[in-house]
Amino acid sequence: MKRTAIISAALCLSLMASGCAHNGGVQEGESTDSTVTEITETESSETETETETSVTQTEIASEETSEEKTVWTFKSSHEVRVETVTLQRLDDGNYIFATLIPKIFVDGKEASEINSFLDEYIQKKYPLKIEGNHADGTSVKFDCGVKDSILSISLLTSATDCDYFSGEVLNFDLDTQKQLDSHEVTKLFGMTDEELFAKVKDIMKEYCKTDEKSYSAYDYEESAALINYDKITPYIMPDGSKGVSVTLIYSEQTQFYGLECQRSFVLEK
Are 66 and 156 in contact, with CB atoms under 8 Å apart? Predict the structure, then answer.
């Protein structure tokens, strides 16, 4: 069975019954029908990784990268090392169910405040229970990006009883180890809220243009009406680009009409 990777800004959509499957997880060795995010190609940045292939948002959609990726290293205003801690994991031969959390080191020292927050937050919001060869709850893996003093952790979650993905981005200040809200990230990007919203609107309008089928998969008017910090999140992409996670609404011409999905776009390289 091929899994459909649809990422929802609403995190746990109860709709999309046609996309639900028995005890869904991460299926190995099989590509998805659609990517978790769609981003513009970017140039190489400050990010250095310890595997042969650098991590991008698109690669996360392969459903295998987070399992293989165990360490990231970044050099920005700080030297940052991100290790993958596997709290629990089940491979039943068809799917992988796991709780993967990041462990952050900044300038050679453990970022205890960030790590404690992420550990508690992930386990509380996305609990996973494994008994024998059965998993119930939500699998979690993550991606990360660093630029200047901003650390962005992108969580990719998948309920075990549904066949789609959800996502969430958390931003942190590496100087203070405090969580940043979206307004603070926008300010650190050198933009005002109004400038960010206007740029997102332009990006959204271009992205929602009609395609060769003479209609767009997304409803621009309905999507544009959702431009606020409940539905969009500025963050640092894995390659160091300044990006934004945007909520889009599927158009009435699609089978997913009315559902929300999340796409990521580059704001600035």
Answer: yes
Q: How many CB atoms lie within 10 A of CB 132?
A: 7
Tokens of 48: 């250095």
The one-letter amino acid at 72 = W
- pLDDT tens digits, residue range 112-148? 999 999 999 999 999 999 999 899 999 999 999 999 9
Question: What stretch of H or E contains 7?
Answer: strand 7-8
Decide: helix, strand or coil at residue 157: strand
- CA quadruple 208, 231, 147, 108: dihedral positive or negative? negative
198: which residues sit within 8 A by CB, 6+ positions away?
A: none
* 3 state SS of 17: helix
Per the CB < 8 A criterion, the answer to whether 242 and 207 are in contact is no
| Per-residue pLDDT tens over the stretch 45-92 | 343 333 322 333 333 333 334 445 689 999 999 999 999 999 999 998
Q: Kindly report the backbone phi and psi dihedral angles of residue 179, in degrees, each rounded to the nearest multiple of 5, phi listed first.
A: -70, 140
* 0.70 exceeded by pTM: yes
Rounded to the nearest 5°, which phi and psi values hold at 99?
-115, 105
Pairing outcome for strands 165-173 and 178-180: antiparallel
Query: Are 10 and 237 in contact, with CB atoms under 8 Å apart?
Result: no
Task: Report the C-alpha dihedral over residues 51, 54, 60, 65, rounded to 10 degrees.
Answer: -10
174: β partners: none
Show the tokens assigned to 174: 């590496």
CA distance linking residue 218 with residue 260, whole number of Å: 9
- Identify the residue whose tokens are 């060769």: 212
**Chain mean position to CA 220:** 22
